[in-house]
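The protein record passed on for reference:
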Amino acid sequence: MFAAERLKIIRQYLQANGQLEVTSISTMLGVSEVTIRRDLERLEQENFLIRTHGGALLNTDSAEAPLPPVQDAPSPYGREIVQTVLSLLQPGDVIMLSSGPLAGPIARELENTGFSLTVLTNDLAAAQALNSAAQIRTVLLGGQLDIGTGAVYGALTLANMERFYVNKFFFECDALSPNLTITVSSTEKAEFIQGALSIAEEKIMLCPSDRLGKAAFYRVGDLSLVNAVVTDSAVSDSYKKAVFERNLRLYTSIDLYEFRHTRDKLTQGG
């Protein structure tokens, strides 16, 4: 990760949290504590922070405005999806979380599983949420930081992810079109998802029911690229049938293995 990218992440972390510890940030970014201390020295010279023993505090007199607060609470249907994701995990999983509204809420719940996990993510809020989870190894992928979304993207991000084995990739679509095309709101997000799909063993798409039947601007690909879909209890029977007809697994909060005993009925029109 380049120095400029680290400095952006450190700035955003401090603006969101007010303080940081050198050991935690070095682990999160995958660089030495010496490197982080140099970064903090530079930011102190810019009057952005005040260094302390083992860390730093945000300089509240800094002219920079704070970042908007992270929206922590997902909708009721979003909470259903978060709980379903947790039920799909096993001890020892190496998972990747893509940036999106549900990444942070999922990350905050992972520690409660008690599982030893490795989590790769391009979402800064998700990485921050896992910072204190002792049994979880967290890897924040490098790349160009998008301040608006708190996510890293770009060629470096794609190159970094290829270094890892991922057995479960969880990603959010911004919309699933009527013809079951996965779409998202930016080309950077589309490229990230496409890259992760190519290396992950199991691909699991998260899609709240209110995003079904719609289309965002950038195409990721056909729904057949994934192995499973996680949605909420408001999903219509027509979409259940469409997923089952593609021989994909469908998970909802009502019944995590719903597809096993309703697929035949729906596909036969019963």
Remarks:
- The radius of gyration is 20 Å.
- The CA atoms of residues 79 and 105 lie 8 Å apart.
- Confidence is low (pLDDT under 50) at residues 65-71, 257-264.
